[in-house]
Amino acid sequence: MTRHHPTPDSELEEAAQGQDLFRAPGHELQIDQAREQAEASGWLPPDRVYDWPGADTRRQIVDRRQDLYRAMQRLESSLARASGQTDWADQVRDALTAVDTALHRHVAAIETASGLFAEVVDRAPHLASEVDSLRREHEEMIEGCRAVLDSMPEDRELEPDRIRREALRVLGQLAAHRQRGSELLFDAYNIDLSAAD
Questions:
Q1: Distance (Å, rounded) from C-alpha 128 to C-alpha 134?
Q2: Burial class of residue 46 in the structure, from the number of CB atoms within 10 Å of its CB (0-12 exposed, 13-18 middle, 19+ buried)
Q3: Which residue of 16, 53, 113, 173 has the fewest CB atoms within a 10 Å radius of its CB?
């Protein structure tokens, strides 16, 4: 059986598409260097150095980030449509609901006792304050998304400018949160995420 050796071009394309969180040109070298540095400094014991992040954690990171990213794109697209269209409010409401659902799934997976946050704190205790900050952001974003949805009952007159403003604020919080999450993962694992992940 012939083993497939990806070319730098195919690695770049897959990384850009978010197909594999850890697939980027030179990713193996980066991981090896990070492991060597961690082991040499005594930051992590050798038995841990060669086991981070675990396969389950990698899949969880990719799935939750992509799920949330797609929901955010859908919301942005819905908000950009002309509000005079008859289904504008329904489209925005559905997109907000998709963001709310994706955000709840993201939080439920990451904040479990065996989830990503617990693993990060276990492996890099100095990042506990960043994890706590991200947890607080989860609560704020859930409340913000729910507030916009609650302000859009079907029997109420629409206020497109207000709805857009509030929904875009939620999108901004989500985008900033994803960036901070990427920083946390880089600090914990020395792994960089592409924008599509």
A1: 10
A2: exposed
A3: 113
pTM of the model: 0.67
End-to-end Cα, the chain, rounded Å: 31
For residue 27, how many C-alpha atoms fall within 13 Å in the half-sphere facing its CB?
Answer: 19
Domain limits of the chain?
1-13+22-51, 53-189
pLDDT in tens, 114-149: 888 888 898 889 999 999 999 999 999 999 999 999
The four Cα atoms 125, 129, 130, 131 give a dihedral, to 10 degrees, of: 70
Contact 98/91 with Cβ under 8 angstroms? Answer: no
Distance CA 91, CA 74 (A): 9
Q: Give the DSSP letter of residue 126.
A: G
